[in-house]
Automatic annotation (TrEMBL):
Residues 108-173 form the Tyrosine specific protein phosphatases domain. InterPro entries: Prot-tyrosine_phosphatase-like (IPR029021), Tyr_Pase_dom (IPR000387). This is Dual specificity phosphatase, catalytic domain. It comes from Primorskyibacter flagellatus.
Length: 216
């Protein structure tokens, strides 16, 4: 079954709330999923799939994820405290309007979340290194572009080009061919390709590699 968006004549087809894109992302050894707002908010599903980290690419989407409110929250203040999972927010526009460097920032934010080493303190309770979900509102544009960039740069033997990575993510996310012209949006694909070129010039070192001198 499909439905037509009131803002577009393009039908949006039913697909899973989250889709497994890569079973084992090297060198981190975790699975990578892509989803939309329904998936990121389905806590039982996230726990069933072993997802402990969520990267939200959408500037126009937030979620109430605090399940352990801080007792110091004052009257009239929004609730804050520990969330149900480790949560990172990128905040891309789904189309034109993003700063040129935002896709690059998203890539390093995602890699940083995967490699981050948390201190042994009670204020960092979510220590599990589980699987990761990258989401946006529909899970068909912003998150797809970012995950394709991740696969291409982290696993170039399997995904030697951005086109190869994009095709893989589109298929695994069950994006139909009549959606591909806007899923992801062309300017987001262009931003991912530009970021790919910049990443080759920058390089980076994970915290676990700091003492070995190894650089990716």
């Amino acid at each position: 079954m499909n439905q037509t968006s009131p803002q577009s004549n393009v039908p949006h087809y039913d697909r899973p709330e989250i889709s497994l894109i890569e079973e084992r992302l090297e060198p981190y050894g975790v699975a990578v999923y892509v989803g939309g707002r329904e998936g990121m908010s389905n806590l039982p599903l996230l726990r069933e799939r072993g997802i402990s980290t969520v990267i939200n690419c959408a500037v126009n989407l937030d979620v109430n994820l605090v399940d352990a409110p801080d007792p110091s929250v004052g009257e009239g203040h929004l609730t804050y405290g520990h969330g149900a999972f480790r949560y990172y927010k990128l905040g891309l526009v789904d189309g034109a309007g993003n700063a040129e460097t935002m896709m690059l920032a998203g890539y390093y934010q995602l890699v940083g979340a995967l490699s981050q080493i948390l201190p042994e303190r009670s204020s960092y309770p979510l220590r599990e290194r589980g699987n990761v979900l990258v989401n946006c509102r529909g899970g068909r544009s912003r998150s797809v572009a970012l995950v394709a960039l991740l696969l291409h740069k982290q696993m170039p033997d399997r995904y030697p080009t951005m086109d190869a990575a994009l095709e893989h993510v589109r298929i695994r996310r069950q994006l139909r061919h009549d959606e591909w012209f806007e899923a992801p949006k062309p300017m987001l694909i262009e931003a991912a390709c530009t970021a790919s070129d910049w990443i080759d010039r920058i390089g980076h070192r994970d915290p676990e590699q700091a003492d070995t001198g190894q650089t990716k």
